[in-house]
Amino acid sequence: AAYKVGYFVGSLSSTSINRLLSKALLKVAPPDLEFTEIGIKDLPLYSPDHDSDYPPEGRALKDAIAGVQALLFVTPEYNRSVPGALKNAIDWASRPWGENSFDHVPVGIIGASIGSIGTAVAQQSLRAVMAFCNARLMTAPEAYIHLRTDAISDSGEINDEELGAVLTAYMAEFREHVERVLTVLPRG
Ligand code: FNR
């Protein structure tokens, strides 16, 4: 059986290197993973005032997460954490109270930056958030991608052997993690 994976790209930039990274990851992923992007750009800012009656954008986000078996975060680092747009989406999905969409969901975290630290600090920050949201985090391997702009083409072809090997191994391990979690905690 195939596993349905929803993925978030944490950047709203039209020239996002993390979007490129997401395209490359989809290309090297095991064939039994089926990917759907879960968009974050149309969400209003979260407020508890919405909890009694979620707007369509908030509902759509929660439905999208409910419709997949695992989640992959592909995110930049902004000021040593994740971009506010991504955190906003996470806050929406974690609520209303008692309806946390991340509960027991297998999750992978990866990201690229133009700096050598490769989103390491943002990923640690996101791990803390996802741990609190009771997601089942893949703890290893970690992948901190320092991305040269020519390493991945616009269509997601990887032009760097070492990067290709890292991303392929990451997605293979992610698939194993998803399978392991879903064996104990089946979803959909
Ligand atoms: C950055 N960038 C950045 N890089 C990093 O390694 N650590 C950081 O803390 C930050 N902080 C940061 C804040 C803000 C507001 C911006 C706009 C950028 C640089 C960042 O890695 C670079 O812009 C990437 O290209 C962002 O990823 P996307 O949007 O191209 O996917």
> Total strand count, please?
6
Q: For the terminal residues, how far apart are their CA atoms?
A: 12 Å
Spans of at least 5 consecutive residues whose pLDDT stays below 50 are: none
Query: What proportion strand?
Result: 15-25%
Which ligands, by name, code or SMILES, are bound? ligand FNR
Order of helices and strands, N to C?
EHEHEHEHEEH
Major sheet attributes: 6 strands, parallel
Query: What is the average of the pLDDT values?
Result: 97
- The assigned structural class equals alpha/beta
Alpha carbon gyration radius: 16 Å
How many alpha or pi helices? 5
Protein model, in words:
The chain has 5 helices and 6 strands. The model has no long low-confidence stretch (mean pLDDT 97). It has 188 residues and is α/β, with parallel strands linked by helices. Helix 3 links the parallel strand 3 (70-74) and strand 4. Strands 1, 2, 3, 4, 5 and 6 form a 6-stranded parallel β-sheet that branches. It is 37% helix and 16% strand. Bound molecules: ligand FNR. Ligand FNR is lined by residues 11, 13, 16-18, 76-80, 113-115, 117.
